[in-house]
Amino acid sequence: MSRPSTTTPLRIGHGYDIHRLVKLDGTSPRPDAAPPRRLVLGGVVFESDCVLDGHSDADVLTHAICDALLGAAGLPDIGHFFPNTDPAFKGIDSQKLLEKTCAELRRRSWEIVNIDTSLVAEKPKIAPALAAMKARLAESANIDADRIGIKATTNEGVDDIGRGLAITAHAVALIEKRQIPLG
Ligand SMILES: Nc1ccn([C@@H]2O[C@H](COP(=O)(O)O)[C@@H](O)[C@H]2O)c(=O)n1
Ligand SMILES: C[C@@]1(CO)OP(=O)(O)OP(=O)(O)OC[C@H]1O
């Protein structure tokens, strides 16, 4: 039996995602995947000879954020809302998925307190694009950019991430239930 909460209704969520890096001239390992075009992380396009493979634009960072938000709200994951078998999401800009995710939370009176993330990538170099990524994600989530954290690290050459075969992203999100004023 659930008991009534007397404290501020805060919820934390965690998200994780991984996408393969493929050469721009390479074939995709997924037959259903959209033709790779550009490397997108946090809604920002990076100059690279590799792209991330996926059904959408494969923006691994934005997907991890969506899952953290959905998890915090006790909702099913990104694949439930945007199935990778649905042609409607083929090649889609993941900022649209983040906008839709935030709309799902708003409909349930959840507001974002903050989001923090880590990208694990041998390349590209993320640091020069951090401000642009935060601004783009903040715009999609309709929050101030200072509520979003992004860190990047290499995997020091260890395992397939370290060999540059994939990029992973981790995210946590804190959300708060909007209070309805009494009277
Ligand atoms: N893809 C990346 C990876 C790292 N950085 C920045 O470099 C710093 C050092 O990385 P280590 O893996 O050696 O810890 C890291 O703190 C980031 O600022 C990056 O920009 N892009
Ligand atoms: C983003 C979605 C959209 O169909 O597809 P992918 O780009 O393949 O990404 P993934 O994180 O593997 O799965 C989640 C899907 O919702």
Describe the secondary structure blueprint for this structure.
Elements: E1 10-23, E2 39-41, E3 44-46, E4 50-52, H1 60-72, H2 78-81, H3 94-107, E5 110-120, H4 130-141, E6 148-153, H5 159-162, E7 166-177
Parallel strand pairs: 5-6
Antiparallel strand pairs: 1-4, 1-7, 2-3, 5-7
Helix pairs in contact: 1-3, 3-4
Bound molecules: the ligand Nc1ccn([C@@H]2O[C@H](COP(=O)(O)O)[C@@H](O)[C@H]2O)c(=O)n1 and 2C-methyl-D-erythritol 2,4-cyclodiphosphate.
**Tally of alpha and pi helices:** 5
Going across the biggest sheet, name each strand in turn: 4-1-7-5-6
CATH architecture: 2-Layer Sandwich
Question: What number of domains?
Answer: 1
Largest sheet: 5 strands, mixed
Following the backbone from N to C, one meets helices and strands in this order, namely EEEEHHHEHEHE
- CATH class bucket: Alpha Beta
Low-confidence stretches: none
Query: How far apart are the first and last residues' alpha carbons, in Å?
Result: 28 Å
The number of E-state strands comes to 7
Bound molecules: ligand L45E5XJ5, 2C-methyl-D-erythritol 2,4-cyclodiphosphate
> What Rg is obtained from the alpha carbons, in whole angstroms?
17 Å
Taken from the alpha-carbon principal axes, the silhouette is globular
Provide the helix percentage: 25-40%
Calculate the mean pLDDT score and round it: 92
Q: Per CATH, what is the topology? A: 60s Ribosomal Protein L30, Chain: A
Query: DSSP strand (E) fraction?
Result: 25-35%
